[in-house]
Amino acid sequence: MIIDKLEEIKAHALYRQLNYFESPQTPHVILGGKEYLMLSSNSYLGLCNDERLKQAAITAIEKYGVGSGGSRLITGSYDIHRKLEQGIAAFKKTEAALVFNTGYMANVGTISSLADKDWVIFSDSLNHASIIDGCRLSGAETVVYRHLDMDDLRDKVEEYQGRPALIVTDGLFSVDGDIAPVPDIVEIARKHNILVMVDDAHATGVLGASGGGTSDYFGLKDGSVDIQMGTLSKALASEGGFVAGKQCLIDYLINRARSFIFSTALAPATIAVSLEALAIISSEPESRITLNANAGWVRSELRAAGFDIIDSPTPIISLILGDPALTVRFSKKLLEEGLYVSAIRPPTVPHGTSRLRISIMATHKRDDLASAVKIIKETGRELGILTKKNNGV
Ligand SMILES: *Cc1c(COP(=O)(O)O)cnc(C)c1O
């Protein structure tokens, strides 16, 4: 039975396997003894191998040892957990914050503990799987609105008036690389007394003058977004997820979010790395500027060549190909040329929208990006994706 299921996955070109790296996640990585230019990392600011972060982990291990020894409510909370949570609250300009073991657990635990079967959750059609799972687990009625479509959201909100409700959206969409119109969402929510939750997993450390995420990017008034979720695992190069908001929200989650309560706390070393990373991203806006310049350059080069890529001021460049088999072929050819670009297929994206997801790092060198762009264009031509007319030659 399991073998039949696997055969079906393979027949649809959707079979996936693990790759095991042998080096830190820097712009150049080692896989199977060979070096590749990494173009698929979420470590946007290139901090995964940062000396200051490594030292923070080593110092914490020497002081606190390795495992945390228990769940947060029993024996797993340390003084540095409190320091990190206060730091996140200050960074997000909220009253309080709570660290979960992963961003996935933050979404699942928060949504499922707040909403119940009497609630309605309005959810963007391209929201991350962890949001979808949180909605499912809550038992609430989930109403999916068209991606970024505020008219559709407004219609649906009006249709379901009178019930406790939540609007939830990715801030920076993880595979399309576009940005939710958070100010419009907040305005709709205020009018109807609905809670707003924004998942800034990819926006944290990336968007906004101080890297605060979408609220920072749009210059929203503090407290506009009721529930600001984010992760420590992407730009911050650590591990863990967080929720920031009012003190009452955090107190509630501590008491009710099952993914927070029933899991061993992150190791003190991981918390120490997050603390140090938070200090770095707050004090080093230069690397965000380099990141945006790198990403803007690659995006405009590939768009000019004729690839199907949306325009967006983010480091996620989604090159949509449609067919999963073609996407895998493209990715494999790039790998042969020394470029690591992962093929994103269903169930991660809707059917018919398989793509290469290129993500840019602040630490990429322009020369490396230029040769990558050249190889991607050549491969696009070779596979017949770029026509003669718009092949950028
Ligand atoms: C990565 C991601 C998560 C999950 O965060 P982890 O810390 O990796 O578990 C949640 N939401 C979005 C939009 C993401 O991209």
Protein described:
The model has no long low-confidence stretch (mean pLDDT 96). Helix content is 42%, strand content 16%. The chain is globular. It contains 14 helices and 13 strands. The strands form three sheets. The protein has a seven-stranded mixed beta sheet, with helices on both faces. With 393 residues, the chain is an alpha/beta fold. Pyridoxal-5'-phosphate is lined by residues 102-104, 107, 128, 130, 170, 174, 199, 201-202, 231, 233, 241.
Side-by-side strand order of the widest sheet: 3-9-8-7-6-4-5
Q: What is the overall shape?
A: globular
List how many beta strands DSSP finds. 13
How much beta, percentage-wise? 15-25%
- The whole-number mean of residue pLDDT values reads 96
- Identify the quaternary structure here: single chain
Radius of gyration: 21 Å
* Main sheet characteristics: 7 strands, mixed
- The class by helix and strand makeup works out as alpha/beta
Total DSSP helices: 14
Bound molecules: pyridoxal-5'-phosphate
Distance between the termini: 51 Å
Spans where pLDDT lies below 50 across 5 or more residues: none
Helix content: 40-55%
Order of helices and strands: HEEHHEHEHEHEHEHEEHHHHEHEEEH
